[in-house]
Amino acid sequence: MKTLYIARHGKSDWDNLDLNDIERPLKNRGVQNCKEMSEVLRIRKSIPEIIFSSPAVRAYESAKIFADELSLPLDSLKVDGKLYLPDFPTMLKTILYLDNHLQSAMIVGHEPSISSFVNFFIQQPIEKIATASVTALEFNILDWREISAANFKKGWHINRHYPKGFSIT
Length: 169
Hints:
This protein is an alpha/beta fold. It has helices at residues 28-43, 57-69, 88-96, 113-121; strands at residues 2-8, 51-53, 77-79, 104-109, 134-139, 152-159, 162-168. It has a single domain (2-167), classed as 3-Layer(aba) Sandwich (Rossmann fold). The chain is built from 4 helices and 7 strands; from the N terminus they run E-H-E-H-E-H-E-H-E-E-E. A 7-stranded mixed β-sheet has the order 3-2-4-1-5-6-7, with helices on both faces. A hairpin with a 2-residue loop joins strand 6 and strand 7. The mean pLDDT is 94.
């Protein structure tokens, strides 16, 4: 069994309009929401072994909060330039080549890429993943290269607005 966590970055700060999209940091609320979601993950014992982040500042800051709050070692956080607004095949390639000793991984990214990716695997589509929200996808596989809709077992989604979460199929 392998588990993939897909997280959207926290709420970004639009105060400085001179910044490029990739340079926008988190708002204070985004920082707090990521910390709160980390606590929900900790309570659920849903802790990824590795986190991949888009290079966008807001995504990296979110990923760093998840890593810090979940007590992951510093080298478990990886920045992947291809995760800035990727298409489905690009996101999938990030996962397919994971080391098989890893049982879980997280990608911290952006809309609409992450909801499109999640919706490929599930039957009840999620219209839009809110900031600082997390979806877990469990696959009945031993090798990350076997990830597919056919091997999707179950999942859950935790919207930061409704932290109890719900199951997805």
